[in-house]
Automatic annotation (TrEMBL):
<keyword id="KW-0597">Phosphoprotein</keyword>
<feature type="modified residue" description="4-aspartylphosphate">
    <location>
        <position position="55"/>
    </location>
</feature>
<comment type="function">
    <text>May play the central regulatory role in sporulation. It may be an element of the effector pathway responsible for the activation of sporulation genes in response to nutritional stress. Spo0A may act in concert with spo0H (a sigma factor) to control the expression of some genes that are critical to the sporulation process.</text>
</comment>
<keyword id="KW-0805">Transcription regulation</keyword>
<keyword id="KW-0804">Transcription</keyword>
<feature type="domain" description="Response regulatory">
    <location>
        <begin position="3"/>
        <end position="120"/>
    </location>
</feature>
<dbReference type="InterPro" id="IPR018062">
    <property type="entry name" value="HTH_AraC-typ_CS"/>
</dbReference>
<protein>
    <recommendedName>
        <fullName>Stage 0 sporulation protein A homolog</fullName>
    </recommendedName>
</protein>
<dbReference type="InterPro" id="IPR011006">
    <property type="entry name" value="CheY-like_superfamily"/>
</dbReference>
<dbReference type="InterPro" id="IPR018060">
    <property type="entry name" value="HTH_AraC"/>
</dbReference>
<dbReference type="InterPro" id="IPR020449">
    <property type="entry name" value="Tscrpt_reg_AraC-type_HTH"/>
</dbReference>
<dbReference type="Pfam" id="PF12833">
    <property type="entry name" value="HTH_18"/>
</dbReference>
<dbReference type="InterPro" id="IPR001789">
    <property type="entry name" value="Sig_transdc_resp-reg_receiver"/>
</dbReference>
<dbReference type="InterPro" id="IPR009057">
    <property type="entry name" value="Homeodomain-like_sf"/>
</dbReference>
<dbReference type="Pfam" id="PF00072">
    <property type="entry name" value="Response_reg"/>
</dbReference>
<keyword id="KW-0238">DNA-binding</keyword>
<feature type="domain" description="HTH araC/xylS-type">
    <location>
        <begin position="458"/>
        <end position="556"/>
    </location>
</feature>
Length: 569
């Protein structure tokens, strides 16, 4: 979904264009309106803008000044100047910029719509990544990437032997400053086609890396490092020339989240690799990066839906949690060898990954790699079996605590008994019981995620119904729920089967019908109360929904009421 900002100091033009583009279903635009250059700049600071349809000649801050702000914040944004001025100097100044078009207001709505459609297609085409993927294949310097990857992997895992200084960074071709704070972003691929091989998987990882570096390079210095378990870490430092170079973490976060949305879209549509991102609340020192990495790993495990990728922000997550989260012989010798191999590697990564992504089949297949050989051990005093049991129990407790399900679980089971392997007569009995407990934990986690999802959907719907006359843009609603706007839109559609914009429109029409039943309510006042800028817009959309105008609906209602009264007499 692309975001269109309409800016003009003539209210009737803004409202007319807003109504038109909000109802063009083929484009699926998220539309915002501003009645001045100042208001338009406020939107630039609140959300990503892909297309700006703006007048040039506005008071205080004109269109050309607004263009400068757009290019500073969202450099790929397409700008369409819509003006009544045909003087050459306006057009000349506008065409000096790339991605800028110039239209006269006299050219009519059809021309404007066709221009916006052309720009949307242009943006879609630009997201094609085939050429970028090929370039990634050609340009990968395996040795340099390998050293860099190993260095940062050690850094994230708190290797105190590392040198963190300018000389070391230069040796590894790390184009970041060792003496300045760094913002950490952590990405994780949710799912990959099971048919891909090792090389294809790595090509996808490096393609994601190239996408991140390309889009981030517009405004920040960054380095993307692929990690194990389909994760990628991105280290970001602002440039001094950018608007957030004064360490305005909020402004920088808006840019990073907006950019990550573009990367997510390309990954989903062109690489078939949906990616979650977790964003640190603020920059930190290099020596604190390992602690921040753990924090973001934990954050990635708290996303609500496993089918919709999201961008998790530490700051937003803390606020969301306050609002929505309420206060897991030869046969025996072979089995022992299997367990010993698992214990040597401490190979729980598949288990952690599958429970975090909700891949139930993979989760229990990975779990059975531990439980099946455990159940085949005959000696109840076998040390390997006991270590494996304790490892699995520790993993179980970790999952339960990370999902915050201890209180729910303790309602039907005494958690303290988990550590007591003596309560089982055989390891087979222990393994079967553990499998039972893991099934219960998985079910509880799904129930909790479903509950959290429906709590947020209910909150959004109640907020909309109670604030129909206010700003109900996707950005505004996302700020109320502390969720990323694109994620909120997809989550709502996936959960309810309907678009969020449809719910808003239906809620407005429903409330309008209630108000129309009162003969003393003026239609223009009703329009304002349910969120329409003009009575004309209200009348047009009401007629589209109900097949009659508001006045006709009122007349029909009262005629039926009088008829009913006569029948009762």
């Amino acid at each position: 979904m692309y975001r269109l900002l309409i800016a003009d100091d003539e209210e009737i033009i803004v409202n007319g264009l807003y109504d038109i583009f909000s109802n063009l279903e083929n484009l699926e635009l998220d539309v915002y309106k501003a009645y001045s250059g100042e208001e338009a700049i406020q939107w630039l600071g609140r959300t990503r803008i892909d297309i700006a349809l703006t007048d040039i000649n506005m008071p205080e801050i004109d269109g050309l000044q607004l263009l400068d702000e757009i290019k500073k914040r969202w450099s790929w944004c397409r700008v369409i100047f819509l003006t009544g001025h045909s003087e050459f100097n306006y057009a000349y100044k506008a065409i000096q910029y790339s991605n800028v078009r110039y239209l006269l207001k006299t050219e009519g709505y059809d021309k404007i719509i066709k221009t916006v459609e052309s720009v949307v297609q242009e943006l879609k085409d630009e997201n094609q990544t085939n050429e970028m993927i090929q370039n990634a294949k050609d340009q990968i310097n395996l040795a340099q990437d390998l050293f860099c990857q190993k260095y940062f992997y050690a850094l994230l895992n708190s290797d105190h032997s590392l040198k963190i200084n300018t000389e070391e960074f230069e040796r590894l071709f790390i184009h970041l400053k060792a003496d300045e704070p760094v913002m950490l972003v952590l990405g994780e691929i949710l799912t990959l086609p099971k048919s891909i091989d090792f090389w294809e998987k790595n090509q996808i990882m490096y393609s994601i890396k190239q996408l991140l570096v390309r889009y981030f390079s517009m405004h920040v210095d960054s380095l993307a490092v692929p990690l194990k378990d389909d994760r990628i870490a991105v280290f970001v430092q602002p440039r001094k020339s950018q608007p957030f170079s004064d360490r305005d973490d909020g402004s920088m976060s808006v840019f990073l989240k907006g950019t990550l949305e573009i990367v997510q879209s390309a990954c989903r549509e062109k690489l078939d690799a949906p990616v979650n991102f977790a964003l640190a609340e603020r920059p930190c020192g290099w020596k604190e990066i390992a602690e921040k990495y753990v924090s973001l790993m934990d954050l990635l495990s708290h996303h609500i839906s496993h089918d919709v990728e999201t961008i998790l922000d530490e700051r937003d997550f803390r606020k969301q949690r306050q609002n929505f989260v309420p206060v897991q012989d030869a046969k025996a010798d072979h089995a022992a060898a299997e367990l010993q191999g698992l214990l040597f590697r401490k190979d729980l990564s598949d288990l952690y990954h599958s429970i975090e992504t909700g891949e139930e089949q993979d989760y229990f297949e990975s779990l059975k790699k531990w439980l099946v050989p455990l159940g085949e051990i005959q000696d109840k005093n076998d040390g390997i079996a006991l270590e494996a049991y304790q490892t699995i129990i520790t993993f179980f407790l970790s999952c339960m605590n990370r999902s915050q399900l201890a209180s729910q679980f303790s309602e039907f089971y005494n958690i303290n008994k988990l550590q007591d392997s003596e309560s089982y007569g055989t390891w087979k009995e222990a393994a079967d019981h553990l499998l039972e407990l893991f099934h219960k934990l998985f079910d509880l986690q799904k129930e909790e995620q479903c509950k959290r999802t429906h709590e947020i959907i209910a909150f959004v719907q109640q907020y909309i119904e109670g604030h129909l006359s206010e700003d109900l843009s996707l950005t505004s609603l996302s700020e109320k729920t502390y969720l990323n706007s694109s994620y909120l839109s997809r989550l709502y559609h996936q959960t309810t089967g309907h678009k969020l914009s449809s719910f808003i429109e239906n809620a407005r029409i429903k409330r309008a019908k209630e108000l129309l039943e009162n003969p003393y309510e003026k239609i223009y006042e009703i329009a304002r109360k349910v969120g329409y800028d003009t009575a004309a817009s209200f009348t047009r959309l009401f007629k589209k929904a109900e097949g009659m105008s508001p006045q006709e609906y009122r007349d029909t209602f009262h005629s039926a009421k009088r008829h009913e009264s006569k029948k009762q007499m």
